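Worked example 2:
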Amino acid sequence: MIKKILILLCFFNTLIFSKPPSFEFDFEPNEIFIIEKYQRVFNHLQEREEKNKIHLTLIEKNPDFYGFNGVFTTYSRMIPKEKEFKKEEEYISNFQILPNGEYIVDEKYKFPNLQSIPSFPKIPSLQEIPKNWKKPAKEIINLLEINKKIVVPFMVYYTYLGQEEILYYGNKVPAHKIQYEYELNHKVVPATGPIQFIKGKSNGIVFFSTELHIPLYEEQKIFYDFLLKNNQNYKESFSIKTWYKKIKKINKEEIVEKLNKLPDQENFTIRQQERGISIDLHQILFDFDSYELKDNAKKTLNAIIQILKKYPDQEIQISGHTDNIGKESYNQELSERRAEAVAKYLIQNGLSENQISYKGYADKKPLYPNDSEENRAKNRRVEILIITE
């Protein structure tokens, strides 16, 4: 109930202090724009679930555009047996969003991969939104295996369907319902990769808030048909649900102060990073060569969980780390299993599975040189990173 009240207060505060309602994007310097994208992916080999979480921090605001520093993080999990998302890759991008929703992205960036949906015609008032309009957009298809990207331009056709109340983070809020569709017919030039032609089609529904000046929720289906160099076809389809929200930047010092009051301080170390706050949990977590949490570790984690529950909007990334002793494959599996064990424990004890992800790094991210037993012990850790930026 308290969380719902806070969401409503945030909603109405935004209405009071933002600019008048319009089909335009708008952001304030103390806001972070969060996009959470969940997708089911189907092809002839498998079905998988992926998540993209996007943090956009406003770094420039003027009448013509909003400049963002973006962190795009990709995750995956096997369903139904896994609740925890495994972190895959992280990409950095700087780009601009125009008030009408169009994107300007430097060619050197791989993300955002879908650009300028939704975007709107310039209209003098809400009452003059047209029934139909069209706007250009583009998609970046990243072939990560060969470090190549394909830029696919297309035209999006929009239909305005009127106003509707939707369930938004547990509360009913008003939104404008917009349908869109587009097709891809793209010959890959120069044909230096495995794909020579891309066909596809997409249709979607997006709910836009003219009071909050952002989309709130979106559903999209995409179908791709890739003609490969060997003249075979590879087909893939996506069913995507996306949530959008603005959150206020939180005070790092406030979280650090709470963590510093916890018992068993010898069991963890707190570090402030550019993107958030790290809690480094030391060797108390596990016995040697094990990824079963010890009772003492659970006691420490229980205290940390009580603080994390106060920040339900914040993403939490769990990472496992080893020293450089032993085989790389063994260290990779051990670091991943230990990170997964902590992620599972956080979820089992009240944190949202949508907040949590994990990844093992073996010895690839040491805090100290692995040149002494003391330093190697410090590098053997599980890190809980609370994303604040």
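The longest strand covers residues 148-168. The first helix runs from residue 2 to 17.
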